[in-house]
Amino acid sequence: MKNFFLVIVISALAFTACNTGNSTKINEPTSYDQIPWVDMAEVESLVKDNPKKIFIDVYTAWCGPCKMLERSTFKDSTIINTLGKNFYSVKFDAEGPDALTFKGKEYSNPGYRPERAKTRNGKHQFTNTFAIRGYPSMVIMDENLNIIDRIVGFRTAEQLKNDLAKHIIAAN
Questions:
Q1: Rounded to an integer, what distance in angstroms lies between the CA atom of residue 166 and that of residue 172?
Q2: What is the mean predicted confidence (pLDDT) over 119-140?
Q3: Rounded to two decimals, what is the model's pTM?
Q4: What is the domain partition of the chain in residue ranges?
């Protein structure tokens, strides 16, 4: 009986030792209560460690439909969980002051004026990367940081769910 117990303990320890520290899968929640927004500066390292597509909300401080998107669509539990589980989500102020580096290139907003923070302001250099026509715009990038889709204008939760679905199906 003593030998049987010893075999079980050794087997359990061996199994545990073989299954720790070797997994590259990042533990993610099974559900989210809000969209897990990340900074654009973090995206390159996140994708390198755990490849996912990237969802970028390109907005401005003065944009009414951008605020509606934030108040309604981005509060929908289906959208929250779809973005949380399948994408790295980024909010990018197209007229904001923050400099960033992306794919080795530095971007800034030399035309930004602090006194105009809540109204139309200088366009951030990084905004040109997206080639968008209006706000709000949502940009989808693949795991290699290439733009694969642009969604222009306000979307209800149902509309955005349909827009995102094609990128989730393509990933599976």
A1: 10
A2: 94
A3: 0.80
A4: 37-171
